[in-house]
Amino acid sequence: MLILAIVLTAFSLFIYITQSRDYQFDAVGNMQEKLVRLQTYFHSAAWQNSNLSPTDVPSNEAPLQSGDLIILVDINGQILQNWGQNPANPNELVGTLLSAEAQNPDARVYQQTIPIININQGKISSDYLFIIVPVIRSDSLLGFLILGSPSPLNDHLRRLTITLLMGSLGMLVVAFLGGLWLADRAMRPVKAITNAAHTISESDLSRRLNLPGHDELAQLASTFDEMLARLQAAFERQRRFLADASHELRTPLTVMNLEVGRVLSGHRTSTEYQHALQIVDAESTRMARLVNELMSLARMDAGQAVLEFEDLDFSDVTVEAVERISPLAEQQNIILEMGEMPELCICGDRQYLVQMISNLIENGIKYSGSGQKVRIENRLIHNNNQDFVSLRVSDTGPGIAPDHLSHIFDRFYRIDEARSRDTDEDSSSPTGSGLGLSIVAWIVQVHGGEIQVTSKENEGTLFEVTLPIKK
């Protein structure tokens, strides 16, 4: 409104100034035309022969129109004769006009508001334009001829002022009402977003705005809906994570409580005590490992995991991970087969890389039967004019069904039907928490690499990790 008011004021002033100049130019032109007709008339035969008044000739020849006046004065300002309208104070008028002429001889037309004697209305004030013509004969100044005509300038400018003022005020009113309507309409999506933000809580993240349109606010609402969808998915993952973690921790605790309660319920043999302690030890080890993995994931999610990057030979790291996991493979009667191990220099954190490789090998051991093989090999590959390290860990286990491949890196996700074995009879067999591959995926990501998995049921599974070569 303020900007529009300033623009309208500047525009109105421009129109007023230009129109005022045009009105004055037209008024001066009309006065010049009347002066020409007047001079022509006073030099005509009708005036020379009969000395008629300028108003007594036929209308098509009369130099004076309705409301005009002519005053003839001598050089001293004394009125010699006048025609047309009768000013109430002619001597005062003549003196004022002659003084203005003396002070500003360059001005051609003078405007004055004078009282005119009207037979029906008495004295009325009117705006007049005057032009003063010197009367010269034989190079001698004999007097002045004053021609006056009603001035429409003030009326025109007054009407123009009213028109501009009313038009500007009307436009401001329309702009104000239209602005209120548009602002209300434009802010409705914002109000909807605000109300939704106030009403949506952690327990009700399924609500969506679904605002129609393609403008900026509709895009904002769509972005808000997408944010809610991501929040809902994050909260669902968190709930599922907490539920799975609680379940994973509850299982070993339940087993331990049952075993302890069983041996404490009566006198047992040393063999039974030893068996119970072995079960408690296995479950406590499993629970400690789960807690460590949960702490690792929590640090990773919070960005508190500290990685110490250094130049490494990835094959040396792989050998270290294989040596670390070899006792478990021997225990499970699994053959670890080493493939090519060329010298491959990368930049990474040795501890986390060893953990990544160990988790992949352990995953292969976990789901391979006794006497089967887990193969580990490194090689150099080229992709898009870049060199990468490729770590391939393959097993000969039962494989993974296609429906499960896209979820194997989810936390606590297990493929019980495809890749789990019954470990109830063998407490020494490896049991997983469903977090190992999640940790692997995070380590690969922070090292700027990618991980892919291919599998065929009843044939085995291949994990391939690609990491950038240090230049």
Give the secondary structure arrangement, pairings included.
Layout lengths: L1 H41 L2 H6 L18 E6 L4 E6 L5 H14 L6 E9 L3 E16 L2 E11 L2 H47 L16 H49 L5 H33 L7 E4 H18 L3 E4 L6 E4 L1 H17 L6 E11 L2 E10 L6 H4 L10 H4 L16 H11 L3 E7 L3 E9 L3
Parallel strand pairs: 7-9
Antiparallel strand pairs: 1-2, 1-5, 3-4, 4-5, 6-8, 9-10, 10-12, 11-12
Task: Note down, in words, how this protein is organized.
Helices cover 52% and strands 21% of the residues. It is of the alpha+beta class. It has three domains: 2-158, 2-Layer Sandwich (Beta-Lactamase); 200-304, Orthogonal Bundle (Helix Hairpins); 306-468, Heat Shock Protein 90 (2-Layer Sandwich). β4 and β5 form a beta hairpin. α4 (153-199) packs parallel to α5 (216-264), α6 (270-302) packs parallel to α11 and α7 (314-331) packs parallel to α8. The two termini are 62 Å apart. Mean pLDDT is 81; it is low at 417-430.
